[in-house]
Amino acid sequence: xxxxxxxxxxIQLYLLMGIIQLLSIVLDYVPAHDVTxxxxxxxxxxxxxxxxxxxxxxxxxxxxxxxxxxxxxIFLIYTQRNELYFLLGLGSFLLAHIAYILSFFTLRNPGxxxxxxxxxxxxxxxxxxxxxxxxxxxxxxxxxxxxxYGCVITVMGISALLRFxxxxxxxxxxxxxxxxxxxxxxxxxxxxxxxxxxxMAGLLIMITYIIAQYLIVSGLLMHNNEAEH
Length: 229
Fold this sequence. Notes:
This protein has 229 residues and is mainly α. It has one domain (5-227). 80% of the residues lie in helices and 0% in strands. It contains nine helices and no strands. α1 (5-26) runs antiparallel to α2, α1 packs antiparallel against α9 (201-227) and α7 runs antiparallel to α8.
């Protein structure tokens, strides 16, 4: 099934909102930054709605992940007002990652597990252990939430890797690269917040996040569309 013009326009609107979001960071224009945070994920949700048939396999899970990511974006706008908003944002993205994990297992073809893939997954665990160990002394009361979040996003990356050979090539690489970029984006947030400031942190976080969401959602839709042929 070829993407409809309406679907393409939704993804173009998503990318436009992403570009405006990045420009607002560069220009330090807070109103545009906040507005585009509200408007970023809805076009991506509409892209899923218009591209996948009603009742299509995995559609609700993907939409749940996008919706929870949208909630996370909104909560994080108000982090400076109250730490509770950061926890709500963290919780929303935690659930979004769980939804993506479920979608990775749903939108793939049956097949035997390959030992080589499990070995290739080891670097994800090593990276998570190193990052959490580095951040641990400065986490304070946030140790448990950050450790749980770190474990979940690591599983998300491994789950994307385990789709290798069980889906179409473009679907695998879009989702896998997107998952890696999502891990990088969240790592930058944690490093900048709990360890030491990262130069151009806001810009780098949003660049990797915007691309990650686009690649993951597009990759999952590729699997669904190819499977319909």
